[in-house]
User: Fold these one by one.
Assistant:
Number 1:
Amino acid sequence: MVAIQFLVVDLYHGDEVISFAPAKRAGICGIIHKASEGADIVDPEYAARRQRVLNDGLLWGAYHFGTGADVDAQVNNFLTAAAPDDDTLVALDFESNGPDTMSLDQARQFLTAIETRLGRKAVLYSGNLIKQQLGDQVDPFFGSHRLWLAEYGPVPHVPASWSQQWLWQYAGDGIGPDPKTVAGIPGAGGLDCNSYAGSPDDLAAEWAS
């Protein structure tokens, strides 16, 4: 089993939050929150929770849930909703969504547009979908983006385009190894828990780079 350092929680509006301060005291360093989905959906808790997180001295990140909608519209929706500053981690959530699943080409277009607009690369969150789409192929474009790997279990299995994951979502929906809880953030049916292999200082230095 790989050593787990539970340092990051990712959230959306359906997750219950009491207070971020106890989570920070328990060792959580960063929160990545859903900002948007598709071309026109905005998470209603994003803006308020952002201020609360920053007030409590944690790192803040924003992710976009990709769909099959027009990519330019999705990029605009995300950047408007997320309003990222230089300290905000930005990420694309690339996962299965039935007939509205974002294609690999759309993911490539989205990530390219984010880099053009912000001057830095987004993090790619994915698990089974990126493994299915790329197989054993080494793709230099996707490999140049930090991988936030979703795999609930004791050991992460990284696709061929990466030598290792940057973040590892090792538990969610109540599935995966412990720890799966943290003070102040009960979640809703199972907290999304993420491990980082380096130190908290390393995480802070790399967070929005």
Number 2:
Amino acid sequence: MNCLICDNILDEKEIAHRMTHTCTSCGFFKTKNKTKESNTYKSEFWEKSDYSEFTGTDFTNKKVKDLRLTFESWYSYFRPFLKNKKSILDIGSGTGISCILLENEGFEMTGVDPDPKNAKLINSKLKNGKCINCFFEELKIDERVDVIWITHVFEHLENPDEFLGKCKQWIKPDGIICLIVPDCGNPSMLESSVSNQYHIFHFNKNALKKLFDKHNYEIIKCESFATMKKTDRRFHNVLRKVKVENISSAKKPYYPFELTVNNDGYEIRCVIKYKDTKNQNFS
């Protein structure tokens, strides 16, 4: 088997008691013998998820506090790149948190989710946007969008090449893609990702950069984020509870995560755009 990024012959390596195909050149990993039947988009994924009961809610329940804080951290990071952007295509909407809360921020939202239950619940909360029930491979939209938003979904896709190709059809010439994956440059996150039965691919920053370059995408930002240490998180949680969020936000703008240059990242956040807009056809 060859690497989908650099076409090198892949080695086999056991990680977390699972066999993987690994590329020694770009650092790309793929769980061996993954099939569509194991894809995270199957409806039972959300039925077994701890967040299934919050799908399509307003996300104010205390039980889902961490999920909302995670979204707020993502939004704080991506917000500077969303200036003058109006329409967002949310791929793999899942619980609907990004779709619903981004609409609350004033964006024109189109969600995409293969689970009909998810799509129905999300649509019940969207005021003007819509969540389309389909796989991304089947998606057809009438107009290009300013932003494609895909958070912790890319690692589940069977064919990342096909997805990046489709994005060129969906996005405006000056549009961007906001993408987040687990940081598998961190050995412990690599083990965690491989042990997750729903993850097919496992990326580090080098592998992502080479994959984006292969598809003629320019990287605007590509950075690793670690979870804050418990003591720091507890301290900033107290600051926020006593209504001095401005102090906390100045020190830790991406709470409860923070930028890291060490091999301790939890996730990689990327902003990319397509270079060759002259050949960006919409069909």
Number 3:
Amino acid sequence: MQASESKYKKLPKWAKKPLDNCLDYLENLLLMVDVSSKSIHVVRMHKSLLDLVTTHWFIPNMQTTSKRDLKMLKELKTITEQTEEIAKNSKRKDIKDLLLLKGMAIVLTWGALETFVIDFLKAWLNNAPDAWKADEIVNLKIRLGEFMQIDKELRCDYVVDQLDKLVNGPPRQGIGRFESLLKIFNLYGSIDDDIKDRLYEMSKIRNAFVHNKGIADKKFVDSCPSLKCKIGDQVINKNTDILRYVDSVLVYLAEIQLRIFERLGVPREELKGSPAMNIRYGKYEEAKKQRINLPEKK
């Protein structure tokens, strides 16, 4: 942890763990996307590079090439044959523009956000006794006998799952599902329209990949006019910037973190200059090195 961060308040471990898990996951996901995209480019160049080595180095020097070099030449030819098909496949349109990779990244990033909200609320119920006083929980229709038979460690999971159904969770678009759940525990708040719009787009792209192979249908076209897709188009194209969506997720995570602080009695004014405040209010360049380390880690 940087010395400059030590003056800022820290979340309790139970509240911080779901956030850490989400951010670690996103860090690994972005690394995977970066490595995979670069690997595809390397594969495309591999055969040409091997042909160049064998043609301009080994062949002209066949008379003076040692047995060891001849063995290496044989191995290079075998590798060339093996990579030829891979290189050919890597030039297919969907891989060429990394469409599938981008789509997978958006699906997994949205899943990480979804998991964070659900896991955090379970932790909140388990560690904040007054959370059980929420009207939606008090009025929740459950069979007491059935509830008492559930293992104590799983009761919070059961309640959050029931609340998710109550607010019509998964069918809701964008962050509507998350905000409805957070509102139950007085963790509701405002978020910039541009961030909200990006997260809405992201949820629709996610649904298109999960349910329609990443192809735009009429429902998608009508719901996301800003993406300018036509029916039958890929919802992801070579110009799609997935970091734009990841940044929006990070801003939303920072906003939720600040709301948690407020519910724990720490006003935002005391967090000015912290990584969460920098990310939440758009100081991306200042927070660039701190994005993945949003919560201060020991």
Number 4:
Amino acid sequence: MLSLIDYARLVEPTDKMPPELAPILFGLFGEVGSVMAASKKYHREKEVYVGFRQTAVEEFGDVLWYFTAICRRLGIQGTNFERTLVGEVEGQGPSGAVQIALLPPDSELAPAPQLDPALLRLGEAAAALLTLANELGDAPEVLSSFGSCYLEALKVSNMSLGEIAAHNAAKTVGRFVEPDPASLPRFDDEFDDDERIPDQFEIFVTQRKSGKSHLQWNGVFLGDPLTDNIADEDGYRFHDVFHLAHAAVLHWSPVFRALIKHKRKSDPAVDEAQDSGRPIVIEEGLTAWIFSQAKAMGFFDGRDSVSFDLLKEIQTFVAGYEVERCPLKLWEHAILQGYRAFLLLRKHNGGVLIGDRSSRTLRFKPLMKDHS
């Protein structure tokens, strides 16, 4: 169990926004608009829009995050923060009123008929909050009014404050807080060496005169030679580097397992669900999609972060597979390390990729001139 005060403490390190109040107010107003957009989409598509609940949980959580950030900037914290959002509940202390327990979203619930009026009131309350950018005199009253409208909108959406807060805390902490290495998943420690991704590995990547790239591990060629498979040369022939980054940093890569024949066949359930054809296709598709996004941004050259929106799409992509346990911050490390190595591979038309799972790193070094 987690109190609302604990939620505020958990997400405080994720607040990377400027100290000014205005950007936070804009963010909250925008997230309320996103909840309204989800309701509009449900009106348009009805039962076809199966993602209403997931989207609403996401957006309501972001509204809570910005509301908490506003209170933080105004010095409203602790039990005062709880009272501002939920008020006093008869028979319970402030902390007892808002114990956060994750309720399982076991059904795709449609919004209740009362949602539209509730969202209109929430929008009006959000607009009233914008006045705080210039005048703070009525801050407690305006914030409390917004809190009441927010809780009402949650209720008619068939959602709980606990579910929303727990989901948002996990998402934002996983994105912005550096994870404790001891807490990170490893996935294959209980398997024998021939079914594990090696703790350290060196992969030689060479490009022949044909323009095709080749992989070698321990002197053995892996997979098929690759080309860019596109008229406009972009280096995709070296895209296996991203699978190696996944293996080293995330401790996950169905593609790399298949290439080196280290599938976990001793456990048929794990082999079927995590190492077989569909997970391989998921990783290949995800890699190609990230590449298309990265290409438009210069392959993250000189960047030290990845957009939150891109990382959230990854989370959706890998839902249901073991790698969904990896925090988004770890995905960011894997992507940035992979693309740094990719840029060096493309520059040198090959190289050696050194993976180290203990440090969760992937490094590049140039090929020796006599290597073929």
